[in-house]
Amino acid sequence: MSANLKYLSLGILVFQTTSLVLTMRYSRTLKEEGPRYLSSTAVVVAELLKIMACILLVYKDSKCSLRALNRVLHDEILNKPMETLKLAIPSGIYTLQNNLLYVALSNLDAATYQVTYQLKILTTALFSVSMLGKKLGVYQWLSLVILMTGVAFVQWPSDSQELDSKELSAGSQFVGLMAVLTACFSSGFAGVYFEKILKETKQSVWIRNIQLGFFGSIFGLMGVYIYDGELVSKNGFFQGYNRLTWIVVVLQCLFPWSHPCNNSYFFIRLRSQTCRKSH
């Protein structure tokens, strides 16, 4: 059962990340009348919905008792302010990363973005070795080298890219690439930092994700005010939102454990478990 659950989780994660990339890319390049939706507001809405989803999961774990839910949230979050504040660091990184992914997909095609973003597995491995003292086997290092080689070949210029550059004339491929690389490093660090916090405490992943979402909402609203405050005051918070936009937002919060930092953590753990052939 544990092995089947592991691969089922991997399949769901692959479906979620792939569908999110394709729909996000399409939503950022689709030409429609009126203003385009603001990525900063989409990040905030996704965080709020993710908090709600995690609260429902905690409610279910509390045997569907509102009194038990209130006690858990009070004891695990309000009564442990220092433990809650520890999540401010990965949450801030995660909010920045989410905005960078929108920038990347506005300037890169989906295939290039998806392959390049897999460098987060490499950064997660490096941070795991440096911060947690983990040791990776020969086959794991070899896999990471192959991954780097594949990403390098994807970025290698070709004649076909001259045609693609015309289609992407509205954005800079360099900006998109820098956004992806920055997101990869932030993903690796946040994922390992999150793993370290999980090992040091006994709080559930749902509680931790509520804490992440709380700080993420605050940081996200600050970003909306600083970068898009004028546009929001002029056209409203939900300007440019349509059915496709809501699909992107729902995909981001459909699986509350699927923060980008959690994804990189999940990938490296799954790879190490598979190499050892044990759960």
Automatic annotation (TrEMBL):
GO molecular function: pyrimidine nucleotide-sugar transmembrane transporter activity
Keyword Glycosyltransferase: no
Keywords: Membrane, Sugar transport, Transmembrane, Transmembrane helix, Transport
Bilayer topology: Multi-pass membrane protein
Membrane spanning stretches: 7-26, 38-59, 136-154, 174-194, 206-226, 246-268
Recorded GO CC terms: Golgi membrane
Subcellular location field: Golgi apparatus membrane
Alphabetized Pfam families for the sequence: Nuc_sug_transp (PF04142)
Ribosomal protein listed as a keyword: no
Similarity comment: Belongs to the nucleotide-sugar transporter family. SLC35A subfamily.
Protein's recorded name: Major facilitator superfamily domain containing 14A
Species in which this protein is naturally found: Prolemur simus (Greater bamboo lemur)
